Amino acid sequence: MRKTARQRLSGVYFYSFIVWLIYMYVTNEMGFNQVGFGDYTISIPTLADLFPDTILISIVWGLIYLFIILPLGASMEWFFLDIADSEKPSWRTLLSVFTNQNYMRFFVASLLSLIFLFLWSLLLLVPGIIKSFSYSQTFRLMRENPEMGALEAITESRKRMNGIKTELFILQLSFIVWLIVPIIVLITGIVMDSQAISATADILFFIVWAFIGPYFQTANAVFYIEQIRKADWEE
Question: What is the largest CA-CA distance in the chain?
């Protein structure tokens, strides 16, 4: 799957990297926005930092996250599914979730998934992680089955992932090799109680995740094609 993902990204990696970088910034997944090295500070303001820090603004940003950023995750999965399907990717795919026929379906699916994962995580961390794999194919199933409702898609994803969650876990775990250096630097910073080293680790995590993000997302899309969609064809 990783090999197939690399093949699909050939020729479109730079474009997908730019789209992924913008997505990381908009969703505040950059991992850091301010790190200090002694008297020097590197700062990347988030969108929220551009506005006054008031209760009203905090409420507004909470609503923006709930109604815009949360469903945007579905569009990002579609973007990389197009790449995995050898189709020409377009940033317009990211906006397709906000069309009249799509928005409410994907907003409800995003919200229900978030609630379900939160409730499972209240039991223990492990059940929450397991369920995150169970629900992982929800948005892709909804895209290819326009008649499918939010709860139906979540249930269908859970059924389809039965017996193959370990395969997806191993696939995603294999990317941890890219994070070995940042992890070592982070541990060193903690052990030595060094703010500069810990700050370096934050930057390394961001750089690595920014560059492998498109690869990781495309590999997950290939998993869907080979394990979920292919099963439909075989039936």
Answer: 63
DSSP state of 54: -
CB count, 10 Å around CB of 108?
16
**What are the backbone dihedrals phi and psi of residue 93, each rounded to the nearest 5 degrees, phi first?**
-60, -35
CA distances to 87, 137, 219, 231 from 157, rounded to whole Å, are 24, 5, 18, 13
CB 167 within 8 A of CB 219: no
User: Which amino acid is present at 31?
Assistant: G
Rounded Cα distance between 152 and 159, Å, is 11
Query: What's the whole-model pTM score?
Result: 0.83
The pLDDT tens digits for 156-189 are 999 999 999 999 999 999 999 998 988 998 899 8
Tell me how many degrees the CA angle 45-47-50 measures, rounded to the nearest 5.
Answer: 70
- Give the distance, in angstroms, between the CA of residue 228 and the centroid of all CA atoms in the same chain: 19
